[in-house]
Amino acid sequence: MEQAAERKTTQLWLGIAISALSLAGLFLFIKPAEIAAALRNARLSLVGVSFLGILAFVILRAFRWRFMLNNDISWRQTFHIQNIGYMLTMLLPFRAGDLARAVLIGNVPPITLARGISTMVVERLLDMLFIVTMLPFTLAEADRLPDWMQAGARGSGIAAIAAILILIAAANQRPSALKISAAILNRLPLDTDRWLKRADDLLAGLNSLTRLKDGVVLIGYSIIIWLPILFSYRTVMQAVNIQPTWAMTGFVVAAAALSIAAPSSPGQIGVFHAGVTAALVFLGQDKSAAASFAVIYHALNLLSMVVLGAIGLTRTGATLGQVIAAAKQIGRRQT
After folding, report:
1. Does residue 7 fall inside a structural domain?
2. CA angle at residue 240 from 43 to 143, to 5 degrees?
3. Structural domain of residue 109, as residue ranges?
4. How confident is the model at residue 166 (pLDDT cuts 50, 70, 90)?
5. Residue 133 lies in a domain
6. Is a pLDDT exceeding 60 seen at residue 4?
7. Which of 26, 44, 263, 320 is the most buried (most CB within 10 A)?
């Protein structure tokens, strides 16, 4: 238990350090006064329109999550619980919002904690596969990218498609997939039973892929839910006087998703700003406009998640303290 606590403390400080270094690097490259000047020229009306994209994004994600739970609970419950989790992820370290979502959804019959966790693991996997698959199609705007990097990005897209096909095959042949997993794990210095249980939970969350119709719906959801985010990013870029193409927007969305996968402080502060600013500057955009986009979009997203999460707390009757305490308890069990 003490080792787990020490490991989490180390992770927390590592994340804070990476966020601080990201912000320091950004401000060394772009003077804060330049960012402030660009912010003063931003068109706030377009920023407000961008919120509609974020709202559509979370609405569609709730539909997908409910579908992954076999529609066993109402969309309203799924929506509010999801938003509480997103709020906590933005405010607390260690992606505490994921555990909070699992605890809350696991308390709604007939959903169980394990079932909630497995669907969230699959949800994150599908999102990352979509981002990696989309990335090669955005390279038309990244002609400065060296040939070897373009080839690597295209290769990652092919690998992502292959991974989706493997997951579909594994979900349809679950006993065989678990036998293969056990054989591999037995050769590694890992807790076989623990990791085999995680593999089983992952495949359970992919149950929708065992039926052709449901699999098509799930993959369709996983594509459609990102369209409002593309719209939201593009609108905020226009608000700071960047004129993006859709390919450029997709490249920046992919850069943002990959950058926030790195350890950071709560809310992805620093890593998000550095990642999207670097992507836009790489595409030839003005550095102050690029940084102002990062500041505005991050603030809009943070505010949106906090407001929607607070509404979720009032609708579910839960308190912030209760949710955090329950999430911590589950977290201690898993370490």
Report:
1. no
2. 150
3. 15-277+285-300+312-334
4. confident
5. yes
6. no
7. 26
